[in-house]
Amino acid sequence: MFHFNMDAARSVGVLSLNGDLTIRNAAELKEAMSQAMDQSKQLELNLTEVERVDLTTLQILCSAHRTLLKNGKTLTIAGTLSPALRDAVQQAGFVQCGGDKETSGLWKGVMN
Amino acid sequence: MNVEIDTSAFTEEAYELLSELEDSLLELEASPQDQDLISRVFRAMHTIKGSGAMFGFDAVAEFTHEVETVFDMARNGTIPVTKQLIDLTLAARDHIRSLLDAAASGDAVDQANANRIISGLRSLSPDKKPAGGSTTPAAPTGSKAPAQTAAAKEPNIFRIRFTPNQDIFGTGTNPLLLLNELRELGECRIVAHTEKLPDFDDLDPEVCYTGWEIFLTSEIGENAIRDVFIFVEDECELNIRLLDRDQVIRDREESKKLGQILLERGDVNASELERALMPLGDRLVQAGVVSPDKVRAALTEQQVIQEKHDKKKTAETATSVRVPSDKLDSLVDLVGELVTMQARLNQTAGTIGDHTLQLIAEEVERLTAELRDNTMSIRMLTIDTTFNKFKRLVRDLSTELGKEIELITSGGETELDKTVIDQLNDPLVHIIRNSIDHGVEGPDVRRARGKNPVGKITLAAIHSGANVLIRVEDDGAGLDANKLRAKGIEKGLISADDELSEKEAFQLIFAAGFSTAAKITNVSGRGVGMDVVRRSIEGLRGSIDVNSTLGKGTTITLKLPLTLAIIEGLLVMVENEYFVLPLAAVEECVELSRDDVKKAHGRHVINVRGDIIPYIRIRDRFEIEGNAPEIEQIVISEVDEKRIGFVVDKVVGQHQTVIKTLGKNFQHSEEFSGATILGNGGVALILDLTKMVRYVEEEELHELEVQ
Predict the structure, then answer these.
(1) For testing the chain B interface, which of A25, A33, A60, A63 should be mutated: the one with the most B CBs within 10 Å?
(2) Quick check: B210 and A59 CB within 8 A?
(3) Which of B126, B497, B520, B605 is placed for a possible disulfide with B525 were both Cys, Cβ 3.0 to 4.6 Å?
């Protein structure tokens, strides 16, 4: 469900998430994110294969994004979002999330 | 991970809502303009739909949705509340019930019926005019409706602040689904508030940190928005505000286009846009007229009032507890055991004669009595739910038979033991059916007889001592004693030369296999009704009485004991036998000496302060051997509104009586309503005074005839 590997050439950690990401595995997702965050200065998410998503996932990703920024690290999204995730971000009104002046929004580039 | 969901909570709630729905609909029929009632119907439906979907009753949810849609139109004044709408909704209510039943039993449901109801409902909606056009509402309503729709066309802008409690996921709620529901109501801008989202390390993945601000542009009213949040009312903070329309329009002209574009491009934060579109308070602050604190205070004040209101609401809901009735039954059983045991304690304490022990025994007795009263009061239910059921019965049956009948109920607040109420339903159904079918005449006949074409059935409950009287009164044709007599002879229930008083003739309707209706309908008249009624009422230790005036109407009175489990009794002794008389019937005790008996010249009567009172000697009645004491006691009791004495050797005193039913072998001894266990382990029989008097009367009449 979660797969992490280091792209040594770019020195970027890539975390791929797929399948259902709901409250049932929210704790596992947090754990996976936490490990990935510890291991990489630049973290990239691959979210193309995500199926069901609920609010807990969005909260985890947003919180991770903010925390990383605060610590001088980055979190970016590689490629496109899966349709389910895209819908969820829109439905939950998270499109703007983290899109203040100081920092760039997590979802900004991938929602258009 | 497989989560087993307990659906009983839903079904229980749904059944309750359905009966509430029925009541509301019937009330609504009487006052179709009542907005409160329309909303109540709508809310009941909405709750059934919502929780049905939540618990996986998809068929229920889908079907209810159709009904709800039509009722929503009624609520908005788009369609009028007509008899047709109510008929269909009642049918729909029955169908939902059968869906629930089917879900429990696994039986198939009548899909054709569902389709019929749905298409009927759909034909009521204005945009799909029915083909026949027969349901077009009357002209005045027709002209009013477009005006209302026009008024509603002007879109409103609502600002909805929705902040779920942190533990909302625990109830299985998915806030995103609620947001989607809002989207269905109109154009929505949704902004998430994620300020509360903690740093990653402190993040609890299963807590909801997010709140939302939603700007909804729609023609619907605030109620429709609240309905979306109906299930999470207690699990969130909800603040809905209609933004000032003039201001909004003005602002919109200059700022909306720009604002929306900026928002959509993500160049402007939604909260910034809101600030521009927003309330007076913030604008004043920006203009430097008032300090932000003042505004905050005013807002807090608003909030405090709201919170106070919410708290009150939760307090109200917390005051009642739902308990399965078998738990209550076992509680009553236990109290019964305790009462018996306490009697034994009293007895033992008395024998030992230790003063301290006696004091304790008395304390325990007091507590037991209190515990008993409390327990019994928990089991008491008001009879109005039973009464309300009959509104529907009367309505449906009278329509079926082409009669117009109004049901008037009174005394619905009267309380009765739950067991009694449960067992009262069927007998009352029979009696009321009989009144509708045989009693009340059709409108034409009534008009010809100079009566109001609308018949009347009155259902009343009244307290009377340890009993409750339930009276079913109709203003119909009344019972014809001669007809009854003829029928009785025909059926071989009485012989042709029997002389019957009017009252005795009326009693014939309770005989097995007796039916006077010339034509048998499916409503009543199969001759199995009234004898069953009498048996079940007597099974409840009650009695039934008929009174009727030909052409004026019939009154049937049920007399029922308040409770079946524990009563206050008067313990008496004859020789070595103990008996209990229900204390509620006892009026006084007087002495009976040998001289008194002599003065009466062998007749069983005594003069008590000028009143001549007949008495029954229990010693003779039950053929108890031995000699009566010099001075006996007469317990004077009220039986069927007459004063009758019961002669015993000795009055022992008041006794908390736990009623035990007699075993099968003693069921035929109808003079006893049961037995109770005494403190010394002995058994006392409980006398059924009414029946005893009836038997003695019958026997004496018989003796007179023989002579």
Answers:
(1) A63
(2) yes
(3) B520
The structure tokens listed for B229 are 């949040």
CB within 8 Å: A108 and B201: no
**Ranges assigned E (strand) in B96-186:** 156-164
pLDDT at B127: 57
Q: Looking at B87-243, which runs of residues are DSSP E strands?
A: 156-164, 187-193, 211-218, 236-242
Condensed to tens digits (0 to 9), the pLDDT of residues B545-581 reads 888 888 888 899 998 877 667 788 899 999 889 999 9
Instruction: Determine the 3-state secondary structure of B67 from DSSP.
Output: helix
Catalytic residues of B: 46, 68, 434
- B185 and B224 Cβ atoms separated by less than 8 Å: yes
Q: Which two tokens stand for residue B573?
A: 């002794």
Confidence of residue B293 (pLDDT cuts 50, 70, 90): low
Q: Of A10-24, A67-81, B114-128, B410-424, which range is least confident?
A: B114-128
Summarize pLDDT for A47-84 with one digit per residue, the tens: 888 888 888 988 888 888 888 888 888 888 887 888 88
CATH assignment of B566-706, given 2.40.50.180, 2.70.40.10, 3.40.50.360, 3.30.70.330? 2.40.50.180
Tell me: the pLDDT tens digits for B598-646?
Answer: 887 778 888 888 888 999 999 988 888 888 888 999 999 988 778 999 9
pLDDT at B266: 56
pLDDT of residue B572: 94
Distances B296 to B225, B281, B502 between C-alpha atoms, Å: 26, 9, 81
CB contact under 8 A, B169 and A97: no
C-alpha B693/C-alpha B559 separation (Å) is 16
Mean pLDDT value across chain B: 78
CATH code for the domain defined by B381-561: 3.30.565.10
Interface test with A, best of B2, B160, B178, B197 (most A CBs within 10 A): B197
Backbone angles phi, psi at B335, to 5 degrees: -60, -40
B315: pLDDT strictly greater than 60 = no
**Contacts of residue B558, Cβ cutoff 8 Å, sequence gap at least 6:** B424, B427, B428, B469, B470, B471, B472, B537, B542, B543, B544, B545
pLDDT of amino acid B295 = 56
CATH of residue A68's domain is 3.30.750.24
**Dist CA B139 CA B144 (whole Å):** 9
Answer for the pair B510, B533: CB distance below 8 angstroms, yes or no: yes
CB distance from B199 to chain A under 8 Å? yes
Comma-separated ranges of CATH 3.30.70.1110 domains in chain B: 153-314
Interface touch A92/B197, C-beta < 8 Å: no
Which tokens sit at B126?
A: 């204005």
Question: d(Cα B472, Cα B559) in Å, to the nearest integer?
Answer: 12
CA distance B377 to B400: 40
